[in-house]
Specification:
The chain is mainly alpha-helical. It contains 18 helices and five strands. It binds tryptophan and iron/sulfur cluster.
Length: 399
């Protein structure tokens, strides 16, 4: 019924680094070629935990947009916008809050986890409890069916699916829905109607997901149905209600293989990052001073790449050939560590060069960046408004 639509957001709480690039952004670059994509700065989400540092959010928001553009996110392919500039997100969040059981929010695993982890902050706030619901509003307002996220966000997508189903169940019914749906089934023609009915039964009675996909495909291809009938049949398939909001699916992002300078995962909190817009000298220096296998005290001591963080960088940046050279040279003390690091320095700089070039272009033209965002916000708002019209109507607010 709706074309595939991808949506994802990132919280502006600091500069992006190679971990974000390998973990998230490269995935976005692929997606923007394949789907309609909406990418946004989740500044309200950042405020739920960083409400005491507004300046950080302000600065990080613009830095983040420049980082995205520098990484190659293409505003002519993807829509880039700021959450707080599409205020309909807040309206949907409010309306959804009316039907969201408190227990569902309290049970989201990130709620207690984060509260326990970020002990320096009072997170017993209304806003923080509502974090997953705000995220649901972000997703549902665009009827986005694919949401690229990391493992840690999967519970939020599951939560969103439950909210979506609850909403459609509560508000998606037309008074004469059953009758209209049965009429619509007939319009499919007897052969397709039979397949549809069989799939519907298999899904509703045995939870057969394959049957669900088959029936959905059948509906997508059906030429002779009005849009309203099509929508009814999609709803009838899953439980006799009209789908006002669309259930999203997580597009699980492979966790980043990008190591940090100390061999742990690259992360701001470990102070082991290489920034996306860091200059070549600083990058070179950071790599040249990276720790190596502690057994190699002297140049003449053989080492073991498995015990060396530099080796993990070779996994990301080097060819088989270079890696063979590392193994041989390291274990025989045939090469020095600085020598070994040079291909890594070259690899990282090669990756960062086009990013730096695009960044320079945008940094020198912040008006251009602001225009890209203004355009994106406008486009996003148009889509959000369409959904809100249906939502208001369904909730009795269609005055
Ligand atoms: N919670 C997400 C994170 O921390 C950010 C986010 C907010 C998001 N709204 C979203 C991600 C909607 C995907 C879709 O990474
Ligand atoms: Fe690490 Fe390379 Fe030195 Fe071996 S030679 S310890 S792999 S930096």
């Amino acid at each position: 019924m709706y074309a595939d639509r991808v949506l994802s957001g990132m919280r502006p709480t600091g500069r992006l680094h190679l971990g974000h690039y390998h973990g998230v952004l490269k995935n976005w670059l692929t997606l923007q070629n394949e789907y309609q994509c909406l990418f946004f700065v989740a500044d309200w989400h950042a405020l739920t935990t960083h409400y005491d540092t507004p300046q950080l959010i302000h600065d990080s928001t613009w830095d983040m947009v420049v980082d995205w553009l520098a990484a190659g996110v293409d505003p002519s392919q993807a829509t880039l916008f700021l959450q707080s500039r599409v205020i309909e997100h807040a309206e949907l969040h409010l309306l959804l809050s009316m039907m969201t059981p408190l227990g569902w929010l309290e049970r989201v695993p990130t709620y207690k986890d984060q509260q326990e982890k970020l002990t320096d902050k009072d997170l017993s706030t209304y806003g923080f409890l509502g974090y997953p619901l705000l995220q649901s509003a972000d997703i549902l307002i665009y009827r986005a069916n694919r949401v690229p996220v990391g493992e840690d966000q999967v519970p939020h997508i599951e939560f969103t699916r439950e909210i979506c189903r609850r909403f459609n169940h509560l508000f998606g019914r037309e008074p004469d829905f059953e009758d209209k749906a049965r009429q619509a089934v007939k319009k499919l023609g007897s052969k397709k109607a039979k397949v549809y009915e069989e799939c519907r039964t298999a899904y509703q009675q045995q939870g057969d997901d394959e049957a669900l996909s088959t029936a959905r495909a059948l509906l997508s291809d059906a030429q002779n149905l009005s849009l309203g009938d099509k929508e009814r049949l999609f709803g009838y398939l899953e439980g006799s209600s009209k789908m006002i909001l669309v259930e999203p699916e997580a597009l699980l992002t492979q966790s980043s293989k990008m190591p940090g300078l100390d061999g742990q995962k690259m992360s701001k909190s470990y102070h082991n990052t290489i920034g996306l817009r860091e200059d070549a000298d600083s990058v070179t220096k950071k790599i040249r001073t990276m720790p190596t296998d502690p057994a190699r005290v002297r140049r003449s001591d053989p080492g073991n790449p498995e015990k060396c963080p530099v080796w993990q960088f070779h996994q990301v940046y080097s060819s088989d050939e270079v890696r063979q050279w590392v193994v041989n040279g390291c274990t025989s003390a045939g090469i020095g560590c600085l020598e070994c690091k040079q291909p890594v320095v070259d690899g990282v700089l090669r990756e960062l060069a086009p990013i730096a070039e695009r960044a320079a272009h945008y940094e020198a033209n912040m008006d251009l960046v602001r225009n890209i965002i203004a355009d994106g916000c406008e486009k996003a708002q148009e889509l959000a408004r369409e959904t809100m019209r249906d939502v208001r109507e369904a909730m009795g607010l269609g005055y």
